[in-house]
Amino acid sequence: xxxxxxxxxxxxxxxxxxxxxxxxxxxxxxxxxxxxxxxxxxxxxxxxxxxxxxxxxxxxxxxxxxxxxxxxxxxxxxxxxxxxxxxxxxxxxxxxxxxxxxxxxxxxxxxxxxxxxxxxxxxxxxxxxxxxxxxxxxxxxxxxxxxxxxxxxxxxxxxxxxxxxxxxxxxxxxxxxxxxxxxxxxxxxxxxxxxxxxxx
Length: 200
Description:
The protein is of the alpha+beta class.
């Protein structure tokens, strides 16, 4: 059974995401993903959360992108959601934990749900590699369109998802004069979750 405090943290996140969505925030599922390579050099970028449930928080990428390489070498990540317009002075949700690849069937199902041009783009892009010109990318797009003309676009072997399996959550509720409210949920060594309040 799910630990009650873990369930509470997931429910809190879900309600905040719903609140952000209802508020009209652009891309309420946008999150900063922080990783580190095998040598400990950190890197951060914004991606879109595609799914979350008790198993964790899922996003998709090219496996040979810098984040893909980082996560294969050092399978730990931190996520940050910032909804600046919520409540008195904004809300942040921070999540950190270990990372694992999603199952191929799960990645296939998500890839199949994407718009066709997004599928084509996944074949045309060598994500984060040097691009000689925009025209070269447009040629790659045209080549992928021709390759899959009249057929479904399969998921590229080098494109998949990662699931961040939470070991901690922090919910930050902004307030005037920096008198914020912060709640931390952490998973202990035995798998039991705890909850505590933090000074701002």
